[in-house]
Amino acid sequence: MTATLFRHPTCGRVNRSKRVDFEFNGKVYSGYEGDTLASALLANGVFLTARSFKYHRPRGIMGAGVEEPSCLVELLGENAAGNHAATVVRLQPGLAAKSVNCWPSPNFDLLSINQLFARFLPAGFYYKTFMWPNWHLFEPSIRRAAGLAAAPDDRIPDQHFETRHWYGDVLIVGSGPCGLLAALIASRSGARVMIVDDNTHPGGYLRKSQAQINGRPAVDWVAAVSVELDANPEVTHLQESTVWGYRENNLLMITERTPAETHVFQRGWKARACHVVVATGAIERNLVFNNNDRPGIMLASAVQAYLNEFGVIPGHSPIIFTNNSSAYQLAHELQAAGTKVAGMVDSRPADAIGAEKDGLETPLYAGHQILTTHGGKHITAVTIRAEDGTTTRFDCDLLAVSGGWNPTAHLFSQSRGTLAFDVDLASFVPDRATQKLTCVGAAAGMMNMAPAMAETVTAIKAIINECGFESPAFTLPTLAPSPDYHLQPLWHVDGMKPGDKAFVDIQNDVTLDDVGLAMREGFDTVEHVKRYTTAGMGIDQGKIGNVNVIGNIAEASNKQLKDIGTTTFRSPFTPIDFGSIAGQRNGAVVLPFRHTPITQWNRDQGAVMYEAGARWQRPGYFPIDGGDMQDAINAEAEAVRYGVGVYDGSPLGKFDISGRDAAAFIDLLYTNDFSNLKIGMGRYGIMLSDDGMILDDGVTFKLAENHYLMSTSTGFADLVFRHMEYLLQVECPDWQVWITPVTSQWCNATICGPKARDVLAALGTSVDISNEAFPFMAMRNGTVAGMPARICRVSFTGEVSFEINVWPRHAKDMWVRIMEVGAPYGIVPVGSETSHVLRVEKGFLSLGHEVDGTADPYDLGMEWIMSLTKTHAIGRRSVDIRRSSGKPRRELVGLIPDSDGELVPEGAPITPNGKRVASEGFVSACVWSVVNKQVIALGLLTDGRARIGQTVVIRDQDRAIKAIVTKPCFHDPKGQRLRG
Amino acid sequence: MLTLPCPFCGQRDETEFQNAGPTKPARPDADVCDAEWIDWLTVPVNPIGYVAEKWWHAKGCGKWFTITRHTVTHEIVTNEPVSGEANNKNGENP
């Protein structure tokens, strides 16, 4: 077949001087610049392009745009991607595509054997069949047979996505006649305008038809308007861009699929407008009759688009089947192009057919319907049925169907506007908006262009005024008169039999029978029918079939369509790439890491870096030569216990709290009493949230009267800040307290171990660091190694510790100096794994381990921290209420597992006698103790404190591990070492 | 994505804020019975309609403020200044 067989010599607007070769299913064809893959295939006489989802029936191209249900392709090569409708794929040099869901080809598809089993594959078959003996046996095969294209194997490295934001006065969706009109008038008023359209060129229906404006082809008017818009700096004009989501407060999500900048693959826009104009037009629906899915059966509007936009006429003896007046335009245009329409089958009675038929040289079959179609891989004939039941067979090689037009109300509905059923259109039209948007044109249900354009002018002028601009004077262009749109709904043809393959959803292979089946099984609301049959759940989202489903539900249940309603419209309107949502936001761009000045030093040492809460990067451990991770941790832990170590505690949350009511505020936050804290001393406190759960723990120092420095955990610092600000601003607005987060303003290096004092002395400090002058939990200001520092004696390790706080610009120098001076003492850097070991040996709390959201301070053995006199602290009441119930509580205990030196996983449950029953506790932490040379653990256990000395059983999947319950401290229980 | 009216910064995108749910009545006195305390703590209003709720301009000026929002249409009605008493009248909807 040569290309000219289906390509008109002059019609269409493709660039015939630029030939584009492409590959489809391994064969090479050629088209022109301006073609879509679909138009080029049709021009080449390729009609069988797909196999249907379930039955593997031969399918072709039905539509010309986003409404296309059957021809999905997988793009190969450089920009591999799956499940694109061939009707929206622009023909480019080097394009290679293949059909989905058929193997080896649509022409010879082995899985078409499914057609023989159609009886066993109705809607929902997988709930009723393939069950015995075990449905898991069938699941893999069914899954392999399901689905469409394959996902690309690799991420494409050169695909760069970008995001932009737009704010303006008027955003117009759709650059058809009404959209362009609105944009023109709005832009002339000086408003900031964005106009977005998903076709390659502006004009919408004006390009797909032979409309005339001001006596000339409408595309001339479109071109003139485009020129004016594109010259206006306040106008942003996007084509080949889809507005796919309508969010709150007029936020629209847009994907620009082919930005002018070649290095940007796609651009996502987030656009907010004072007012949105929805000019999205309408989408034609198909008709429901037996075998309405053969290759060669197309929407009438699609045939019209192929003729006028691409110059392609996919047939030589077309028949048109319609229930409305709009399809007659196609007949006229085909006739003018030299293709005689073999028959016009109109289900409306003759007296309902008006001026639309005038001038047609086609036999008109009023009051007739198509009963069925014939042909294997391409349509060859139709059988037409008259009102009295007599049938006649006609040959044809193209069947154009029109079941009427549905306003494209998706975005309007997403904006939470309500739809109403219009009886004349037999479709759902926008009714009441809940945001600032206006629908115009066919999207508003105005199917006749002249009144639609007039109405648009009125609407946009009001919108402009609302935005604060003066509406410019404007003369409406004149249109050639055309017959009014008239329709008689036909939800399915007469004379149908059970078993007819009359598809209501082409993509998902849903027949009218399936709708009946769903309703008989009790799934008779529109949402249930959708889900039971999967009608409307494909990639095309049922754009051409959903209203037919609703109409048939209404007929079958003897109800009105307005009482059936529609299913919920959800974004995206058409499939979009994930990349266009993410833009540049991935990895560290969207969630940056937080670093200390020591991070690079850690990396240089080869530290294994962990994320330690709130995106802080901290060293986990420092690998050693000839040893594994456990060896490295043991070496660090031994250094701290018997020598000296140093760790970077900079990520700890710190807050400077001051003001007249600072002391009262501290007492409100913590469960223990801070009122007698002396200046220069610190105290460990626990903060609860109002429900009595532990929010955070930390040490707060009193710097001066009404001046405190609070430290929190690393991971919860942000949450504590929110908690404090909430209390101050909302509950205690009359209190004078100022909170300044200083987490990043102070870095620290904490020297810990029996030799810590020696190292600090060797560094040189202006502070008297003897135990008498500088006791545990005290704080001193001075210099260390010549740099200003604040030294705090806090210990999270259980050994003597000096936390040396310096300004960030001194942190690295201080650290390096510590490592130098500490070398003779065998100082090592300490990572978070070792900190964990050290604190478990001491039984110190860790948020997220023992503090699991169910344990209160009493459970954790911290009765002493719940002040008996100061009971108004946040959370106190809830703790008391919970404990007063008398239910058994899980308490913090130590565990020594009999596990042959193996660590027990955190979270492993403790069950009565090790049976597989509800647990009585769990292991919260388990480490190798360097001090005790054995595996130790902490856990929460029901009535744990009363069971010290008993043996319990920990379950680790299939293993049962005995453990002895001990007090939760394995080293220096009296705390003498850290007070030294 | 909503835009919210921060009392200091004006209309800003929702992503700059953190939500803290419907406003609570003033904190009960220490002598209320357990049931009342638990109610205050755990039972917020949950209307199909207008609700007064707290937002924090976390990625902005740090102000806690109250708005009244319709839970279906997201219409934001008022932007009252935060005060311990003024906007906490039993959590009832205006």
List keywords for this structure.
heterodimer, A: 980 residues, alpha+beta, six-stranded mixed sheet, 22% helix, elongated, B: 94 residues, mainly beta, four-stranded antiparallel sheet, 1 helix, disordered C terminus
Describe the overall structure.
- The complex is a heterodimer of chains A (980) and B (94).
- Chain A contains 23 helices and 49 strands.
- Chain A starts with 14 loop residues before the first strand and ends in a 14-residue tail after the last strand.
- The radius of gyration of chain A is 38 Å and the shape is elongated.
- The longest helix of chain A has 18 residues.
- The relative contact order of chain A is 0.07.
- By secondary structure, chain A is an alpha+beta fold.
- In chain A, strand 13 and strand 14 form a beta hairpin.
- Chain B contains one helix and six strands.
- In chain B, strands 3-4-5-6 form a four-stranded antiparallel β-sheet, with no helix packed on it. Chain B has a two-stranded antiparallel sheet with strand order 1-2.
- At the A-B interface, helix 19 and helix 23 of A face helix 1 of B.
Task: Kindly summarize this structure in a few lines.
Chain A has 980 residues and is α+β, with helices and mostly antiparallel strands.
- Report the oligomer: heterodimer
State the largest interface. Answer: A-B, 25 and 25 residues
Q: What is the helix tally of chain B? A: 1
Shape of chain A: elongated
Low-confidence stretches of chain A: none
**What is the rounded Rg of chain A?**
38 Å
Model regions low in confidence, pLDDT < 50 over at least 5 residues of chain B: 81-94
Instruction: Characterize the largest beta sheet of chain A: strand count, sense, and whether it forms a barrel.
Output: 7 strands, mixed
- Helical amount of chain B: under 10%
What order do the strands of the largest sheet of chain B run in, or round the barrel if closed?
3-4-5-6
Q: End-to-end span of chain A in angstroms?
A: 97 Å
Mean pLDDT of chain B: 83
Summarize the amount of helix of chain A as a percent range. 10-25%
* Series of secondary-structure elements of chain B, N-terminal to C-terminal: EEEHEEE
- Principal-axes geometry of chain B comes out as globular
Query: What is the count of DSSP helices of chain A, taking H or I runs of 4+ residues?
Result: 23
- Please state the structural category of chain B: mainly beta
N→C terminal distance of chain B: 24 Å
Q: Roughly how many Å is the radius of gyration of chain B?
A: 14 Å
User: Mean of residue pLDDT of chain A?
Assistant: 93
